[in-house]
């Protein structure tokens, strides 16, 4: 009797357990099914993350090939994020700076003022020295900065250039070696890698100081005039690197620049230098070539170097490797 009763209870327990388990299991299945299963529950699926957008184009170390005809050609690119400088094996060789050094002359003068305003005439001169590459204006600022045209003693550069070397960490820069012109700022000898360092020094605030850096960079971004707009003591200087940059780079923010160019009688060459800097890089290109080739030749070489260093190249598409088709 006791065994029968026990068996009856056991059977009842199994039946009741099944009744209770079925709705629970059904509820779980309905929940897992989600809306797509028609059960009216919520889905547990996770959407795939959107692919990260590619980084914007910039200038980066790369191969540069120019069919150059002349005495000297070199360039240097400074990555302002890492501080790394790239360029050809002769990027430490020097050439005369010409008007490229005016950006430093103006910066050096303004830094010495600290928070003071310069006289209106000198502030205008500083602007003209950069925007129009005006020699007379640059001479006035150079004198106010402590520069002199006397030949420096002992083969050393004058105080304005000395400060550029010490403040900006230049390693190859020296005073000019042309007799009668050794004290002139335009004959200062500088390498492309030092020129790239100079651009970085201006952009990071060491050159002009906290009050005047934005002003100097703004003036450098407003350089004006073409290679055809040349006068005796000033000239158009908006050409070169800026012409080689695609809109995808120039649209990211202002590009500050200062070129230098002079046809030199004593060696029969154009001395052409291009300097440009933005928040990510500083690029310098320096050339000497026959006067017969004209200024446009140098401007195009500078532009070509910039174009070849654009990364990624405009129009470059991501290539997906094709998988070989196998036999079924």
Features:
328 residues; alpha+beta; six-stranded antiparallel beta sheet; two-stranded antiparallel ribbon; disordered N terminus
How would you characterize the overall build of this protein?
This protein is an alpha+beta fold and 328 residues long. The chain has helices at 2-33, 102-113, 120-131, 135-144, 159-168, 192-203, 209-221, 247-250, 295-309; strands at 58-59, 72-79, 85-86, 95-96, 189-190, 256-257, 260-264, 269-277, 281-290, 310-311. Strands 2, 3, 6, 7, 8 and 9 form a 6-stranded antiparallel β-sheet that branches. Helix 2 (102-113) packs parallel to helix 4 (135-144) and helix 3 crosses helix 4. The longest helix is centred in the N-terminal third of the chain and has 32 residues, at 2-33. It is globular. The N and C termini lie far apart (70 Å). Mean pLDDT is 87; it is low at 1-39 and 317-328.
Portion in strands: 5-15%
Please work out how many helical segments DSSP would assign: 9
Question: In one word, what is the shape?
Answer: globular
The helix/strand order is: HEEEEHHHHEHHHEEEEHE
Structural class of the secondary structure composition? Answer: alpha+beta
Counting DSSP E segments of at least 2 residues, the number of strands comes to 10
| Helical content band | 25-40%
Mean pLDDT, all residues: 87
């Amino acid at each position: 009797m006791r065994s029968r009763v026990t068996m009856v209870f056991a059977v009842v327990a199994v039946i009741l357990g099944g009744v209770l388990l079925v709705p629970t299991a059904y509820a779980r299945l309905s929940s897992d099914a989600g809306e797509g299963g028609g059960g009216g529950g919520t889905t547990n699926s996770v959407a795939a993350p959107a692919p990260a957008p590619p980084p914007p184009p910039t200038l980066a170390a790369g191969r540069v090939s120019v069919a150059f005809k002349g005495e000297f050609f070199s360039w240097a690119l400074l990555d302002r994020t890492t501080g790394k400088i790239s360029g050809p094996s002769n990027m430490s060789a020097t050439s005369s700076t010409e008007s490229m050094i005016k950006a430093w002359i103006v910066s050096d003068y303004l830094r010495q003022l600290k928070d003071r305003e310069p006289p209106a005439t000198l502030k205008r001169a500083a602007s003209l020295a950069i925007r129009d590459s005006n020699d007379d204006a640059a001479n006035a600022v150079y004198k106010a900065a402590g520069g002199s045209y006397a030949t420096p003693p002992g083969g050393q550069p004058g105080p304005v250039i000395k400060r550029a070397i010490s403040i900006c960490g230049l390693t190859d820069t020296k005073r000019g070696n042309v007799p009668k012109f050794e004290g002139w700022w335009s004959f200062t000898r500088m390498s492309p890698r030092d020129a790239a360092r100079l651009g970085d020094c201006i952009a990071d605030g060491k050159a002009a100081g906290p009050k005047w850096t934005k002003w100097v960079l703004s003036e450098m971004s407003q350089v004006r005039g073409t290679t055809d707009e040349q006068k005796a003591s000033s000239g158009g200087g908006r050409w070169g690197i800026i012409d080689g940059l695609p809109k995808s780079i120039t649209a990211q923010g202002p590009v500050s620049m200062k070129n230098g160019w002079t046809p030199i009688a004593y060696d029969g060459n154009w001395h052409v230098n291009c300097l440009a800097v933005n928040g990510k890089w500083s690029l310098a290109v320096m050339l000497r070539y026959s006067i017969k080739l004209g200024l446009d030749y140098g401007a195009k070489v500078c532009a070509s170097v910039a174009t070849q260093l654009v990364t990624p190249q405009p129009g470059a598409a991501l290539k997906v490797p094709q998988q070989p088709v196998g036999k079924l």
